[in-house]
Design goal:
InterPro entries: SCP2_sterol-bd_dom (IPR003033), SCP2_sterol-bd_dom_sf (IPR036527). The chain is of the alpha+beta class and 104 residues long. It is 32% helix and 30% strand. Strand 2 and strand 3 form a beta hairpin. Helix 1 runs parallel beside helix 2. The longest helix has 10 residues.
Length: 104
């Protein structure tokens, strides 16, 4: 699965109920591919290729780590602790990803 397909799957598995009242930008810097960002705004989710000017949190990883997290094979917190995933900005928002998207 390509990185673009992984993000399309993520967008399809969006939990709109969990995003009510939120206004966030999750940016994903994929070291061996492209940068993408997801704009979460009051129950909606839009995927964009490229960087955002002011992301709420930026997650930095390679494509294998991304695929593992989205498929549910890799725990995001374990990837973070192992150094496979880095976060810049509001790191606590990264923990919301599991609520906002049905992984696996």
């Amino acid at each position: 699965m390509s990185v673009a397909q992984v993000f399309e799957k993520l967008e399809q598995n969006f939990n709109a109920d969990a995003a009510q009242g939120l206004d966030l930008v999750f940016q994903f810097d994929i070291e061996d591919d492209s940068t993408y960002h997801l704009v979460i705004n009051d129950g909606s989710c839009k995927l964009h290729e490229g960087a955002n000017d002011d992301p709420s949190v930026t997650l930095i990883m390679n494509s294998d780590t991304l695929q593992g997290i989205v498929s549910g094979e890799t725990d995001g917190m374990q990837a973070f602790m192992a150094g496979q995933l880095r976060a810049e900005g509001d790191m606590m928002l990264a923990t919301k990803l599991g609520e906002l998207f049905n992984m696996g």
